[in-house]
Amino acid sequence: MKVIVAENHGEVSRLAADILEETVRANPCCTLGLATGSSPVGMYRELSRRCREEGLDFSRVRSVNLDEYVGLAPTHEQSYRYFMDSNLFDHINIDKANTYVAKGTGDIEENLREFNAVLDGADIDVQVLGVGPDGHLGFNEPGDTLCDGAHKESLDESTIDANQRFFASRDDVPRFALTMGMGNILRAKKLLMIVSGHKEDAMRRLLLSESIDPHCPATFLRLHRDAVVLLERSLADAIGYKA
Ligand code: GLP
Fold first, then answer.
1. pLDDT class of 243 with cuts at 50, 70, 90
2. Which atom of ligand 1 is nearest to the CA of 194?
């Protein structure tokens, strides 16, 4: 696992964009695994700029997203489909027909079958990850066991607390989500974790301990052959991590 400590969030975003740009330039037909949350927003802004100003071409790129809330239609401002359109897809020359975000409304079992079929047919070149304060990846919540494939997850109270800032009230935060499983994530050729915000506990367990612990799904990154963790110096200093 490669750990990069950047001076600030702007630098984290630029370095993360460099990794995605390299992937797209090396293989213009690549498949990107994408993530939502505030951590990758700066990277998406930078990629949009590079597409607009520097000709970075997404016309043949495919994408699949980590997760989606159950109960939010794609038109809902807090749905992850809406997030991806407004933060990235509307600003680059990707064909939206080649982008996939699981459907959170309608027949959930059917949506899960579709999600798993898409993942079975996808060979993800780089999977972008944020991390929850409790170490969750996508919506794989800490627990005694973790799932391999895409599944429906019941959100932990701490995740509902962390994500309520995006909703009018805590009651409006969905209680369930569809998420890629840990197996889907770990099968990506490369993992790119972007860490921002108060993730001290999760980062202590990932960077300062040696255990692989399902109670902190982020620790599974250590099992991957090509995982990159990008964090800001202030967070590294806060947990006493020395590169
Ligand atoms: C949500 C998403 C995760 C994301 C996490 C952290 O729970 N399902 O994929 O990593 O939020 O979000 P943020 O980057 O806003 O801290």
1. confident
2. 14
